[in-house]
Hints:
The chain is α/β, with parallel strands linked by helices. It has 2 domains: 1-27 and 106-208, Rossmann fold (3-Layer(aba) Sandwich), CATH 3.40.50.300; 37-100, no CATH class. It is 56% helix and 12% strand. The protein has helices at residues 14-23, 31-38, 42-52, 65-72, 76-99, 133-144, 148-156, 161-166, 180-207; strands at residues 2-8, 28-30, 106-110, 125-130, 170-173. Strands 2-3-1-4-5 form a 5-stranded parallel sheet, sandwiched between helices.
Amino acid sequence: MMKVGLTGSIGSGKTLVARIFETLGIEVFYADTEAKLLLANPEVKAEITGHFGDHILDEQSRIVNKRLADIVFNDPSSLMVLNAIIHPRVMRRLLEWFDNRRAGLYAVQEAAILLESGFDKECDVVVTVSAPEEIRIRRVMERDHVTRDEVLVRMKNQWTDEQKRNRADYIIINDGTCMVIPQALRIHEALVKKATLNTEHLSLNSDQ
Length: 208
């Protein structure tokens, strides 16, 4: 089965594209969601609070995402510490998830920092969702109810849209004028064709 990585800068609309793939019957692993779920894991929570302190917890001893984000997005060394705690666990979960996929020609992992984290090394193909910076800033401000400066701080911790486009095998433009669904459908058809050829090639080699 072919492994497809789906990424895009913050506010690009990669989750929207992931949902489109799901409607086409493709299974999707949401790395960002998995990372957030890990914050509730007792072992992970203890490790994080050991580094950042109990003030990031609420009255129910749950990690408050915004408090943690305010620290790590303003301090690269703190972000590195958090990533060192979270990323290996997400990677193990991802590899298990891929290993358990038996049906379908390909499966997708969606991750905002697919390239930055090195998760793309586990993928056969990379799809990037791209949008102009100003549009992405406005989307995140409206979605997360944050200021422009807060969005810019988050953006500084990700690769630029251009960097991600340069590493992509396929690009989907989500600028509000280009229709996203037809682009996703074309890429889906290309991925099915590529995965089918790979499967046939493997089958021929095994018969020899």
